[in-house]
Amino acid sequence: HGKAHLDVSQAAVRDIQDTPLAPCFRSGTGILVGEVPGPTASLTIDRSEVTNYQSAGIVILGFGSTADITRNTVTGPGFAGNVATDGIEFPVGSVGTISHNTVSGNICPVIDSSCGPDWFTQFQHAGILAGGWGPGTVVTNNLVYGNQIGLFLGEADKISDNRMLDNTYFGLALVDGQFTIDG
Fold first, then answer.
1. How much of the chain is helix, strand and coil, in % rounded to 5?
2. What string of H, E and C letters represents the secondary structure of 50-111?
């Protein structure tokens, strides 16, 4: 929660979910640091595995909260879970660095009629979701595949050398800002 700092290295966070998986908002998040409203929090996670979660793999919440997420594998349940998942989320004013990660299996299930390919009338879920409340996030050297959207970014400071493969609807979605993408 607020004022928290978590250091994670060479760890595994697995199977954080209801049994069976259920579409409960914010139930079954692998790692959640911060709160809204509340004081800032921070996370450093390196060379770890976050897999088979019900809602999101890693979430950093709150204006001013920060994270350094480096060299991890973040894998959602994909269509087998029948729940909507995102891999790494930096919502509500959080910023940081997301680099050298492999993120896959994050979708909105086909059984949910509000999900689908239409950007304007339907929802899609992402491997990496960051930005939208001001610049400050670096997204570099990640591999995102098998998600509905590989990278869903708003106002990121640096976007470079990411690989987006076999994402169902979009490899890259950009909102609210001017972007320079390198590599």
1. 0, 45, 55
2. EECCCCEEEEECCCCCEEEEECCEEECCHHHHCCCCEEEEECCCCEEEEECCEEECCCCCCC
Strand partners, 64: none
Q: d(Cα 166, Cα 66) in Å, to the nearest integer?
A: 29
pLDDT tens digits along 71-97: 999 999 888 777 889 999 998 789 999
Cα angle: 151, vertex 153, 158; to 5 degrees:
95
48-78 per-position pLDDT tens digit: 999 999 889 999 988 889 999 999 999 998 8
What is the per-residue DSSP string for 158-177?
EEES-EEES-SSEEEEEESS
pTM to 2 decimal places? 0.92
